[in-house]
Predict the 3D structure of the following.
Amino acid sequence: MEKMPILALMYDFDHTLSPRDMQEYAFIPELNMESDDFWALCRSAGNRYRMDPILAYMYVMLQEAKKRGMTLTRDTFTQQGAHVELFDGLDTWFQRVNDYGASLGFKVEHYVLSSGQKEIIEGTPIANQFKMIYAAEFVYDDHTGEPVWPAMAVNYTNKTQFIYRINKGVLDVTDNERVNEHTPHDMRRVPFTNMIYIGDGSTDVPCMKLVGSRGGHAIAVYQGRRNATVNDMLIHGRVHFVAPTDYTQGSEMENIIFGIFDSVAAESRNIALNRRQLDEAQRMLEMDGYRLR
C-alpha cells in the first residue's frame, strides 16, 4: 500500500500541453509537406481503407517517409520531440503542483493519455515528469530499428481504459487480467475522487465524463479567446472548469488545480473524522452492552 494518498493528473497532449499537433514541429516539415496536406492524406486513407483515424495517420507517416527515403527509427521520433513547443509555465508546473500536493499530504502523479505519438512525446523536455505515457506507438524491427507495425493506437474512446488502469494501479498495458478483475473501491490505488483530467476538445469528452461521473474533476483548456467548444462543454456539465493554456505561477489553471487539491484534502479529513467517530461510537456501545443493528 502507498504511504501517502495519490492525486492523479491526466493530460491530453496536443493542444493541451502543446499548441499544435506534435507531428507538425519536425516530422511533417522533414517530409517537405504542409500540415494541411498531410492531415488531408490521413483522412483520405482513413476513408479509403475504413481505418481508425489514429491507425490512418500512423500508416500515412510510414508511407510518406518511405516515398521520400526518410529513415525512421525510435530515435528519429524521439529527436523530433525536442522540437515540440510547450505552453508557458510547463517548465516549472510539475514541481509546483507536486510541492503543493505534498504540503497537503498527497503524492501527485502525472500521466499522458494522448492520441499523439508516444515516441515523440518521450523526446520532449517534460517527458520525465510523467509516471506513464499512454499514446500511439510503433513496433520496431529488431535488426533495422525501423517501425513496421502499430503497437498501440489510442483513440478518444479507448483512452478510458487507461483511467481504469490508473484507478486500479494496473499500469502495464499487457496486463488485461488484473485490470478487468473486480476490485473494491476502497482497495483501488487512486480513487476517482482524486483524479483530474485535462483536455482541449470533444475527443476528450469520454474521459472527462468518466472521471466526472465518479467524483473526479475535468478541465477543458483553450488557446486565446474562450471558444464555443469549451463553453458548450461547461454548460452541459461535461467539465467542471475551463482555463487558458497558461501553466505559469499564479495562473487560472494553477488556481483551479490548487483549489481542487484543497477540496480533496478537506473531504479526506472529513472522511477520516467520520470513520474515527464511528469506531468510537461502536466501542462505546459495546462497553455499555449494546450492539449496532
